[in-house]
Specification:
alpha+beta, 2 domains, four-stranded antiparallel β-sheet, elongated
Length: 209
């Protein structure tokens, strides 16, 4: 069994649990808190299918907060149950659900990492391929973007298997400099466009001898 198939089976299992929960709510077997859990579970299952199919679902910034909320909720639920007088069967079910919630939270937390090709657009993938080729021809690339009184400089290097960008932004308010490293060039392309308004076309190409 491949890893992707295992993820798909896990996503199908969580989807089944979600459907069972929805049926229970519709039959009047749940509380308002249970309905909140179902809403959170719905988004969590969406993210799990995104992981399984290696597709981008919604915005990457939402998944890590959701993962933290799932993990905290699972821990709080288990601690509360420990302090209450409940049967062994109930405690076992709570422990099992907490373990599944923690597992899902870990997967969603990794899914929320923006430095993955699955979050890139088609244009970003195309530009990333161009950037990869350019860095094979030059050890460093430099780009400048000017807009009115503002000027952004970018120096890009490949350090081992990672890509590093050093950004300097000049404006009437002053100057700021920062750097970032990425494992994938698609993430670097996104970063340059978002924080420096620099596209691949802005980089200086190697000159012929």
């Amino acid at each position: 069994m491949t890893l992707q198939r295992a993820y798909c089976l896990l996503a199908a299992f969580y989807s089944l649990l979600l459907v069972i929960g929805i049926i229970a709510i519709l039959m009047g077997g749940g509380t308002l808190l249970a309905a909140v859990y179902l809403v959170v579970g719905f988004f969590a299952v969406l993210g799990l299918w995104g992981i399984s199919l290696q597709r981008s679902v919604m915005n990457p910034r939402m998944w890590r907060p959701l993962a933290v909320a799932l993990a905290v909720g699972a821990v709080v639920q288990f601690v509360v149950m420990l302090q209450m007088s409940v049967s062994g069967v109930t405690l076992t079910w709570v422990l099992t659900s907490s373990i599944f919630a923690i597992l899902l939270a870990i997967m969603l937390y990794h899914y929320g990492n923006r430095d993955q090709p699955l979050w890139a657009t088609e244009d970003e993938r195309s530009d990333a391929n161009r950037l990869r080729v350019m860095l094979q021809q030059q050890t460093a690339l430099t780009a400048v973007h000017r807009e009115g009184e503002r000027e952004n400089h970018a120096n890009v290097f490949k350090v081992g298997n990672e890509y590093e960008a050093n950004i300097t932004r000049h404006s009437p308010e002053g100057q700021e400099a920062f750097s970032e490293r990425f494992r994938h060039p698609e993430s670097l392309v996104f970063f340059l466009e978002k924080f420096a308004s620099i596209s691949i076309n802005d980089f200086q190409r190697p000159t012929a001898n």
